[in-house]
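Suppose you are handed only these lines of text.
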Amino acid sequence: MLAQVIRADRFGEPVDAFQAEQLPVPELGPRDVLVYVMAAGVNYNNVWAAMGIPIDVIKTRNKKGEKEDFHVGGSDASGVVWKVGKDVVNVKVGDEVVVHCGMWEPDDPWVLAGKDPMFAPTQRIWGYESNWGSFAQFTKVQDHQCLPKPPHLTWEAAAAYMLVAATAYRMLHGWPPNVVGPGDPVLIWGGAGGLGSMAIQIVRAAGGRAIAVVSGEDKVEYCKKLGAVGVIDRRNFTHWGKLPRWSDDVEYSLWLKGARAFGAAFWDALGEKKSPTIVFEHPGESTLPTSGFVCETGGMIVICAGTTGYNATLDLRYHWMRQKRFQGSHFANDEQAAGANELVMAGKMDPCLSRVFPFEGTGECHQLMRDNKHPSGNMSILINAPRIGLKNLAETRAAS
Ligand SMILES: NC(=O)c1ccc[n+]([C@@H]2O[C@H](COP(=O)([O-])OP(=O)(O)OC[C@H]3O[C@@H](n4cnc5c(N)ncnc54)[C@H](OP(=O)(O)O)[C@@H]3O)[C@@H](O)[C@H]2O)c1
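From them, the structure of the protein bound to NAP can be written out as follows.
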């Protein structure tokens, strides 16, 4: 099969790291499914995989005993079930599916005990921590990763949303009692990005009030169309980065001034003096001090990434006195992925597909993402689908 492949000697800028190569089709285990990939979604994780930071995904897998000296990335797919392992019962050959990226071993005692598999020792992300992702003609996934493809979507739109949508769903619904409900004000960083565009819609579907943060005039309307009740342009502020030391009077008071002005901008955007009960975090180092400061008493800062850096700084005085929660969150379990998919099925969440690339454009779209020059929403890549606009196997056969 043809695949877009990353190798260790090409780690670096994504535009060069991905190269098309011929590879054997992967073998299936008893609970595995081989999916004929129509389209693949583009996510930040394979920017990291291409650069070899923060981890070398190939070396990490080799240390665990896997032999392949390459990485076939891709953690989102739409396609058709081509072949199933002998114990697979939930899907059959010919089913049109989308794939979520949560993997865990079926015989993991944690999973067998019915606990949240996202905490299981064998949990990993398909197409990032696992090989045989969706940037290839065939991908190998576990049976429980397959969900029905929303019939109203094209292959390319169906491939675009699952990773970010399910991650946002867990962040906003997965950490009781801090879950989004009617009227709740929620601060969403990167509102026009992959995660943010899904988060706005999940908040809206739950009756909450999303305030999105963006950089750029064009993104303001974009977020409002998705359901944000207000938008803040982060370019109006300069207090970003790690928190200055509390004992440094000048630096700290400058930072505090910026954080207070940002908090006031949140109230303005919301139209009332209420602070966010949930702060949807992923930029990390650059924004976390502000997130911690503006979060409502008893509220939650929920974080799934550190795109701008990993060193977390919080003013603990506000954190303990106002009893805020700082919660890490990572992808989603089967139920949460299904919950996100149902919102899409019901037409309550749009995949926000922005741009579609040909198979040869795999490096280019990841490079645009790395440079934060990609369009708002989510991008996808045509793999086996012969052109855009096709929604099912019958249409695809007719077009081929
Ligand atoms: N743990 C998980 O399960 C999980 C799942 C999905 C994604 N992630 C991670 O989450 C991060 C975001 O993913 P994504 O798909 O949403 O990426 P994305 O589409 O690139 O969106 C990220 C947004 O962040 C904003 N941003 C960039 N630099 C910023 C800064 N210095 N301060 C504030 N905002 C900034 C940008 O919006 P503006 O420039 O308009 O502000 C951008 O649109 C990535 O690191 C990704 O790896 C983690």
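What can we learn from it? The pocket of NAP is lined by residues 43-45, 163-164, 167, 189-190, 192-196, 213-216, 219, 234, 282-283, 286-287, 304-305, 307-308, 330-331, 369, 372 (CB under 6 Å). The chain has a mean pLDDT of 97.
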